[in-house]
Amino acid sequence: MLWISGGTILKFFAVFAFWLLLGWKGLFAQATYNSAGTYSWTCPAGVSNVTIEIWGGGGAGGGSTTNGTAAGGGGGGAYKKITSIPVVPGTLYSNKIVVGSGGMGAIGAGGNGAASSIDFGVPYSVNGGTGGAAGTNTGGGGTGGAGGTAGTFNGGAGAAGNNSSQQGGGGGSSAGTSSSGSNGSGPTGGTVLGGGSGANGANAGNNNTNGGSASAPANIPGGGGGGAYSKNGNVSGGNGAAGQVILTYTCPTYNLSSTSATQVCIGTASTVTLTGSAVSLPVGTYTVTYNLSAPNLATGNTTTMTISTAGTGSFTTLALANSGSTTVTITNLASGSNGICSNAISSNNTSSITVDAQPTATAGGSQTICVNGTATVSGA
Known about the structure:
This protein is mainly beta.
């Protein structure tokens, strides 16, 4: 998750965050999805298992159409953690990650938060929180929504609205990473370590203002929305927050033991072969970044390389337009969605490519032909 000052969440269509914790096990990486939607993930080369964490969406606070009534807060989403989920390097898990949306506030009962899920061969999911009930003259106010279930820890419940004190109920927090969520208390939203806080309920001072806007909104992941209070007219409850899915895994350290390249004719591409150990160059799909020296100067080139036998792989360069000796230098190997597992390469990463000019042979004479090349014969 990426945060900007003031606690505002910076949300991308897909958010990828990095833990740069270098150790003997390699690079730890984390992919975080916290905007409602469906996502795909490509397993990096050398990654065989992942830890997943899932939060359901928060329920919305209830609204009100009856003057002098307070609605209940929405319940928070549940949380689940599963370790050592097997994955296959190089596999695209297409549309297998679902982040549940937060419930939408309305002038009636708040919408329920949606479930979040992931399926890398075995499906896992957690439920979102229930929306708060609409404001009513019966029973002192609308009831709070229940917290999400089916998790390692369940979400907190929203608080009931209170007509007497003219306050909508606070939303329940989502479950945290080590405990169940905190219930809303009166107009105050619940909070929990490692989860999303519920929103505060609205009050008479926020006449005709949506629930939750009296204070901070519900927080990702899975906080419940605040309940509304109607002093004069229709008011909607506050929206619940979206859920969240986090993948955590260990990237291997990619490196090379040798680099070689084929001799070619002018205007054609060279095949570059990279060699390493089975551990340093595992099976999977890579993005290779490389430079070419003069007379075919080109830097920052990228291409895809697929390794099916651990320890060796190859790719083709750009077409080489000028004859002479050109050095290819591998500068980076990356793998996985957005190249999340990535290593700069600084040793055993160069090879000289001989680029032969295209010769023209004369009848009756002899001429050396470039490798894999052809000659044009002219004259009688």
